[in-house]
């Protein structure tokens, strides 16, 4: 499996798997803004547009502590992995200030609201963005200039696995270029398999910058780290304050 995964993804996965001892990158992507060009009449290149009062009740945020705090933290110029209580409180206050502008905090329904034109913009994962754009060509996906979360889903084998040899074979199979291509076309989430982009022939996917972005799109981006029980609790507690305000 290792030979097919790009070096940059092994480097990125070091943030949660030091030495790349346990995890094999499987899917990856970014978090950005999907907006409707017929409803937004200005350039979209910054998280700050999500605080623009002109779009009151036209904004969809993720109903997720880390993902919503990420937006505010990056807008403030902080790390999305910060555990500094003051920085997290600043982000909380920013999200509370945004709340009157937000139509909904969603997960699965974010896609439907943006595709149907019920909202002008929303925070979306890149893999979902491609599906949305293929359903509504008025939509566009951007990674804001302040930076974002570059996430990686990985294969791992549990310590108590009973069929370790078969698990290795399965991971090797899923990492094979021809299989990775088929899997990408089903999921539409970016693959770290470096052979896939050249093999892709479907015009909807081939050279598509949403799922096959230029290297500068993910260079220097951060990946979430596990912050421990105390860190998770701090984000969850502050998120509750946002939701109940």
List keywords for this structure.
245 residues, alpha/beta, D-Maltodextrin-Binding Protein, domain 2, globular, single chain, 6-stranded mixed sheet
Low-confidence stretches: none
Beta-strand portion reads 15-25%
- Give the number of helices: 9
Which architecture of the domain at 28-150 and 220-244 per CATH? Answer: 3-Layer(aba) Sandwich
List the secondary-structure elements in sequence, H or E. HEEHHEHEHEEHHHH
CA-CA gap between termini: 48 Å
Q: What is the CATH T-level topology of the domain at 28-150 and 220-244?
A: D-Maltodextrin-Binding Protein, domain 2
Output the structural class: alpha/beta
Gross morphology: globular
Calculate the mean pLDDT score and round it.
94
- Residue share in helices? 25-40%
Q: What's the gyration radius in Å?
A: 19 Å
State the total count of DSSP E strands: 6
CATH class (first level) name of the domain at 28-150 and 220-244: Alpha Beta
Spell out the blueprint of helices and strands.
Blueprint: H1 7-13, E1 24-36, E2 59-62, H2 65-76, H3 85-98, E3 102-106, H4 109-116, E4 121-125, H5 126-135, E5 139-142, E6 150-155, H6 164-175, H7 177-187, H8 196-199, H9 228-244
Parallel strand pairs: 2-3, 2-4
Antiparallel strand pairs: 1-4, 1-5, 1-6
